[in-house]
Structure to design on (804 residues):
């Protein structure tokens, strides 16, 4: 039962997430904006279309959207939705999670390079360098939580407060903030990247998929939403209290995911994008935050 | 004998009064003049004959509000020394001249085609074979952008030489928008005002006004005070609307959603004001030789006043929020800087020049009509970066609203109730020469006209401010991140078709 519920959430939330972000942005700029279900219509529309494939590309270009989608989907299966068991409950899930995501990223980078376009090459190089420095932040958070709870998958999120006491609340809050910043980085949202202006020289994620069309494009934007929802689910797992009935925790879970979508939309409306050279500062900041979490964990354990 | 004929903006003079020097002494005199600050070339064109070309040069003396005109006869088969090494502002003028007549200027660093004009001397030079600069090195890579761009902008090709994310050099190659306008003007006299409205779609009033000022001076037509005021109101409304559009576009480029939305909607208020004056949001059909064909009555005056008051409040508030938002300032400050020295050297004009601290504004330096007695103060910034170019737009919106508010009460007076339109009866003065300068929203627009013995226009030279300023964009990009290019480009917002004509 929970497995089917999990699958439905994994598949439906990404498009809703993007829809809510767009609706929030429309609200802040005084527009009516498209319906929050617009991404669903777009998804179907793109799937009905044909594909234009550049003659200079090889098989890598053809398989990378599928791999990106597949890896993101697989990584999502590892996350417990609403603190109840995940579809795949594996020891050490967080390492599998991180590196399956990286595998997808690797393929989208070489897929972009495969087109031979200078824009996509620049996008790929940016994506590669930013991904490298965002990885430590994620691992320090996960490592801290494991050190605290001694559970080697995402189930440990539920134990933080019982293990660390009042410092646990600080860990939860800081963890949520850090993971929120990671959503902005991984989802290529403002202030890291701007998914709206189609300026080929400044984009990161959007420029890497310039050559993709039709079903491939649909899969890629779907996986980008799925990636954001995966990280948002981690935040939801941090925040939802333990020992509550499934129905309420499910409502809370969806509510928190949607609230995060609104927060992303509000961030995009309120601030400008960072200069490319400043993006590194932003990403290093997530690492610093995760180190603070680590020190709180040390206090929780030995303090 | 005098070396230069000094004329005022819109002053008609006989062609025979223009001094005719031999090229070496003209060369020398121009360099001597341009050494003084505030003298810069505004017009450089030729009148072709079978074996020779008569070159006309006009320099603007901004201090004394004068235009210095001189000329020389150039032999088609001879090579002449270039002015560019001594006065770099001539670089684009000489390129343009070389493209048309094939006369080589020795010592010019890059005598490349400008717009691939239809009547170019070397019809074998094709836009596909543009001679780009090349730079070699292991770690360098070239990025080619355009001529077709993502988004709804005009075609133009940009070639970047980069090392990683840093741009060493940007080369801009235009010419895709060439329509052979100068010839169209000569061949289709009846629709000339319509053509003038289409020189650059975003500067309808500016270019039409420059064209009309020239024609009306040549025919000796006096425009009623009321028509003059309505013309200036339209010009300033166009300036406000375009500056708001640019502020919105700059905000959009840095993904600052609120600024983009608010400035964008405010612009609609302004262009709708123009719409209620003349039935077109860009002011097409408002200006015609002899005056304007739509009057501004009392209800319209009220409407303009209330609309502008609204625009003023919203712009102030939004600019207050935007220019204090730390993410916005961090993005705009020190991006795409052009120093004052460089701006003067390359002969930059308009808002971009003023943002770099060059104190020129032809509404002040070469005023016409109602501008003459307005005693405007020049507004300029010093830093020369994207931030300065953004801020100067905001400042000029306030200035323009102020100008309109000063002019509107005059329309209400009885003393200013003459007819707004009078048919042009006279023919064009024969063998005459006139230079008309108008400060469009982007900068100084120059229309030059020459007539022959029969009073027919034989040369109509148009210079859009973009013609001077494109090179400024290339300078601004040096040592900047390539990802800052769209933002820098927007901060100049130059016209492709204004350059290509």
């Amino acid at each position: 039962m929970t497995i089917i519920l999990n699958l439905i959430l994994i598949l439906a939330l990404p498009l809703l997430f993007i829809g809510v972000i767009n609706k929030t942005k429309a609200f802040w700029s005084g527009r009516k904006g498209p319906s929050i279900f617009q991404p669903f219509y777009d998804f179907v529309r793109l799937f009905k279309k044909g594909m234009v494939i550049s003659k200079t590309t090889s098989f890598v270009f053809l398989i990378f959207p599928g791999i990106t989608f597949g890896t993101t989907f697989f990584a999502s299966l590892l996350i417990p939705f609403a603190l109840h068991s995940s579809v795949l409950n594996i020891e050490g899930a967080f390492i599998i999670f991180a590196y399956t995501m990286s595998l997808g990223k690797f393929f989208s980078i070489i897929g972009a390079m495969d087109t031979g376009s200078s824009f996509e090459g620049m996008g790929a190089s940016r994506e590669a360098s930013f991904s490298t420095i965002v990885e430590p932040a994620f691992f320090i958070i996960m490592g801290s939580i494991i050190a605290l709870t001694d559970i080697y998958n995402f189930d440990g999120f539920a134990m933080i407060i019982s293990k660390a006491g009042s410092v646990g609340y600080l860990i939860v809050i800081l963890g949520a903030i850090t993971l929120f910043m990671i959503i902005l980085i991984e989802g290529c949202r403002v202030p890291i990247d701007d998914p709206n202006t189609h300026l080929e020289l400044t984009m990161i994620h959007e420029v890497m998929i310039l050559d993709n069309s039709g079903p491939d494009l649909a899969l890629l934007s779907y996986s980008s939403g799925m990636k954001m929802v995966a990280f948002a689910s981690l935040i939801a797992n941090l925040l939802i209290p333990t020992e509550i009935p499934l129905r309420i925790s499910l409502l809370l879970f969806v509510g928190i995911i949607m609230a995060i979508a609104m927060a992303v939309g509000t961030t995009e409306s309120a601030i400008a994008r960072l200069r490319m050279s400043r993006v590194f500062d932003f990403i290093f900041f997530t690492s610093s935050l995760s180190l603070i979490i680590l020190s709180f964990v040390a206090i929780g354990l030995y303090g | 004998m005098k070396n230069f004929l000094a004329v005022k903006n819109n002053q008609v003079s006989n062609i025979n009064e223009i001094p005719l020097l031999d090229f070496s002494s003209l060369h020398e005199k121009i360099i001597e003049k341009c050494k003084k600050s505030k003298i810069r070339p505004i017009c450089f064109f030729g009148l072709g004959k079978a074996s020779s070309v008569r070159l006309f040069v006009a320099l603007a003396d901004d201090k004394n509000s004068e235009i210095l005109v001189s000329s020389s006869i150039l032999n088609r088969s001879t090579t002449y020394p270039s002015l560019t090494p001594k006065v770099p502002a001539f670089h684009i003028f000489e390129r343009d001249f070389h493209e048309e007549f094939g006369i080589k200027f020795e010592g010019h660093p890059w005598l490349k085609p400008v717009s691939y004009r239809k009547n170019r001397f070397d019809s074998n030079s094709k836009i596909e074979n543009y001679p780009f600069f090349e730079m070699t090195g292991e770690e360098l890579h070239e990025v080619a952008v355009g001529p077709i761009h993502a988004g709804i902008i005009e075609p133009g090709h940009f070639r970047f030489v980069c090392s990683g994310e840093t741009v060493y050099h940007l080369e801009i190659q235009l010419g895709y928008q060439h329509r052979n306008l100068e010839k169209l003007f000569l061949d289709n006299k009846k629709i000339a005002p319509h053509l003038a409205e289409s020189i650059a779609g975003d500067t309808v009033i500016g270019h039409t006004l420059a064209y009309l000022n020239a024609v009306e001076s040549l025919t000796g037509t006096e425009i009623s005070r009321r028509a003059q005021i309505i013309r200036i109101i339209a010009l300033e409304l166009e300036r406000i609307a375009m500056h708001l559009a640019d502020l919105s576009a700059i905000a959009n480029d840095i993904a600052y959603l609120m600024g983009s939305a608010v400035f964008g909607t405010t612009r609609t208020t302004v262009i709708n004001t123009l719409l209620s004056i003349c039935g077109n949001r860009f002011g097409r059909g408002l200006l015609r030789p002899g005056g304007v064909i739509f009057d501004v009555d009392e209800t319209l005056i009220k409407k303009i006043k209330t609309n502008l008051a609204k625009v003023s409040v919203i712009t102030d508030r939004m600019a207050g929020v935007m220019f204090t938002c730390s993410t916005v300032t961090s993005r705009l400050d020190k991006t795409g800087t052009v120093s004052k020295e460089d701006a003067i050297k390359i002969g930059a004009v308009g808002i971009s020049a003023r943002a770099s601290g060059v104190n020129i504004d032809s509404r002040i330096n070469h005023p016409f009509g109602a501008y003459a007695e307005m005693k405007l103060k020049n507004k300029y910034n010093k830093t020369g970066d994207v931030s300065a170019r953004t801020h100067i737009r905001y400042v000029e919106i306030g200035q323009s609203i102020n100008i309109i508010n000063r002019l509107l009460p005059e329309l209400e007076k009885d003393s200013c109730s003459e007819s707004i339109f009078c048919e042009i009866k006279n023919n064009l003065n024969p063998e005459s020469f006139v230079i008309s300068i108008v400060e469009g929203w982007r900068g100084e627009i120059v229309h030059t006209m020459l007539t022959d013995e029969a009073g027919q226009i034989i040369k109509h030279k148009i210079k859009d401010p973009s013609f001077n300023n494109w090179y400024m964009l290339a300078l601004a990009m040096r040592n900047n991140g390539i990802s800052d290019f769209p933002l820098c480009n927007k901060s100049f917002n130059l016209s492709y078709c204004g350059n290509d004509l």
About this structure: Chain A has a mean pLDDT of 89. The interface with chain B takes residues 25, 28-31, 118-119, 122, 190-191, 194, 196-202, 268-278 of chain A (CB under 8 Å). Residues 2-302 of chain A form one domain.
